[in-house]
Specification:
transmembrane helix, alpha/beta, 7-stranded mixed beta sheet, transmembrane, binds S-adenosylmethionine, 11 helices, Rossmann fold, S-adenosylmethionine-dependent methyltransferase, membrane, SAM-dependent_MTases_sf
Length: about 325
Amino acid sequence: MAPSPSPSPKTVVITVPTLILAVAGAVIFVFLLMSSSFSYSPPSCSCPTGSTVQTIRRQQISATPDDIRWLKSQIEVNGLHMQDNVLRKGINPRTRAQQLQDLIQYKGISHYEKEEEAKNHTSLPCPNELLVEEHHSNYGEPWAGGRDVFEFLAESSQLAPESRVLEIGCGTLRVGLHFIDYLAPEHFHCLERDELSLMAAFRYELPAHGLLQKRPLIVKGEAMEFERFGSGFEYDLIYASAVFLHMPDKLVWVGLERLVGRLKPLDGRIFVSHNVKFCSRLGGDECSKRLKSLGLEYMGKHTHDSLLFNHYEIWFEFRRSKL
Ligand SMILES: C[S@@+](CC[C@H](N)C(=O)[O-])C[C@H]1O[C@@H](n2cnc3c(N)ncnc32)[C@H](O)[C@@H]1O
């Protein structure tokens, strides 16, 4: 059989339609490559959206409408109603005064050890008045409302755990506790003048909430002596909850003057509750002028609905206007 003619190795025969097809294919390939590199869309997944990512980074602080719905449903599902708090199985209601008396007389109503054996079972005895939480009734407003104040202030000033916070007049830590819990160690500072409140804060509230390791810097003082907190940092939030209304106006202004340089410029916030009579008593124009001369700017009045005070709170917001 005669061998079939083989084409010369150097000659490649390409027909015109093949050439057109090859060029078109190359153009389409280059186009697809370029467009994919400019508009990459990831494979579909149930990844969190931008806002969820933010929520994960900035821990949820206030109750959401979903939380409230859940709360209501739990009360309903369990058929719960407020009842009179009377003696019943294993429950022996006492007033604070009765409980204090029990502690003084018997070391607590359910303590059966004899006098000698019952002694010295603690490294640091806690005063009975603190154990019955008398200090929770020191203010007109309920103790638990401190959580609402925290939620409002933390959300309004976009606080993160690394933020730094100063409270003027933290009292028994009704509000401060929640900040101490949320913030990094040593990032909560407070200036408070009342000795009994400070004892309640140190001796009862911090240990009761497992917060000793957060090492809050709480200083006894009443003359706005903020240099005692050290230097080399700026506060993200400075607040006075139910405090400025109890102080002479002059002292409030001294405080503000000393605080301006300690507040983070523009992003840092000062919040004052109830009213700003220290300012309005000067007269509208005079008040603005004085704030301006200090480098402070009034940002507005807020009301905040509350789960635990059963009424809204009023807050006044300021920031540092000059760098
Ligand atoms: C109504 S209590 C509020 C306590 C806390 N801020 C709260 O909301 O739970 C007012 C607090 O301000 C404190 N205070 C008043 N004048 C002060 C001053 N010049 N310096 C520091 N603390 C002061 C009082 O001792 C008291 O503890």
